[in-house]
Amino acid sequence: MPRLRIRPWLIVTILAALYALVVIRANNGDPLALVTIGPEYQAVIPEAQGDDAGYDGQFNYFIARDPSAAAPLIDVPAYRFQRILLPGLGWLLSFGNAALIPWIFLVSGVISLGAGTAILEQLLIEHGASRWYALAYGLTIGTFGAMRLSLPEPMAYALALGGIWLFTREKWTWSALAFALAALARETTLLIPFACGLYLLQQRKLRVALPFGLITLAPFVAWQVILYTHLGSFGVGSGGAMATRFELIPFAGVVRIITDIPAEARAGVLFIFAVLLIPFVLLPTVWGLRRCSLDWRQGRFDLYTWLLLTNAAIMPFVPFSTYREPIGILRFIVGLQIAVILYAASRHNRRALRNSTIWVVTAMFAISLI
């Protein structure tokens, strides 16, 4: 009988399942704890309990429970509905039984998290790097914590990683389809096929780039039109309630953390900024932009440089409302994490790969979510 080999994807999958079960047990066996429904909705959703402030996963639950009646329960309906893949799956597989939805979210999240980690492992091996650096993706708050909160990141980025894997094998149509599904799970994954499209244009593969772009974007654009028709606005935006716009001045969103916070709370905010944003967000962003600049000067712009550039270049313009929310910004950088890891592996940059493991530290924040 062949021996089961311990792999990063297996560790991530087991830990994710165990962690979710601990959360459920700690909340009196209630799987709705994974959805985190806020008190303002508990009168509408009678089975919800507790005094948690709620989080974005509740909107996925409302959509999956009854798409036709969900809009009044959602802060910004079009924005939430655009991430339709996860709640749509919950609605489809629950067959009208709302009690199944949290479990569907959990199972799909655990499977997606394991699958994304496994695909990243394979890409690392192909570049001669250790598969264990995949933990810098699978064991972070942006993916591991998102699974606990019934959020779309594990599914979205597993599909995006699948798209990258297929792209490197020149399976253009299948890659585009994977990216199209990823965009319907979370729109920020579009930065990854955008980088792939730029690479195709650089290689002068126009006959490939055009259908690749059309297949990737057509479902997303069509869904945006449907949202506008039924909800009165497009879904594309910078966030839900109290969201601010993308900044025009680089890193203005970071500066506003200091300038827009009341003086009495500034010391605590600055501490969080130093501990959270600098090592996990700002330093990888600056490193990525610098590496892309060096590649440009050296004429070494390849697929992984484009991936790093698109995901690092967006960071200076991320809204203040995203930067000020710890979980929000750590969810936003998942694409940057993937880009840094793959770029470092492609360049055999062991130092950068070792440094990427610092993202695993963010998984400890998940303890506060139990």
What does this molecule look like?
The protein is mainly alpha-helical. It has one domain. The protein has 18 helices and no strands. Helix 1 runs antiparallel to helix 5, helix 10 packs across helix 14 and helix 14 runs antiparallel to helix 17. It is globular and about 60 Å long. The mean pLDDT is 92.
Category by helix and strand content: mainly alpha
- Number of structurally distinct domains: 1
List the quaternary state of the chains.
Answer: single chain
pLDDT averaged residue by residue: 92
How many β-strand runs? 0
Q: Give the fraction of residues assigned to helices.
A: 55-70%
Q: Could you describe the largest sheet, including whether it forms a barrel? A: none
Count of alpha/pi helices: 18
- The coarse silhouette is globular
SSE pattern? HHHHHHHHHHHHHHHHHH
Low-confidence stretches: none
Strand content: under 5%
End-to-end CA span: 38 Å
- Computed over alpha carbons, the radius of gyration is 20 Å
Topology (SSEs and partners):
Layout: H1 8-26, H2 57-65, H3 77-81, H4 85-94, H5 101-126, H6 135-138, H7 141-148, H8 153-168, H9 172-185, H10 191-202, H11 206-231, H12 252-259, H13 263-298, H14 303-313, H15 320-323, H16 326-332, H17 334-346, H18 350-356
Helix pairs in contact: 1-5, 2-4, 4-5, 5-7, 5-8, 7-16, 8-9, 9-11, 10-11, 10-14, 13-14, 14-17, 17-18
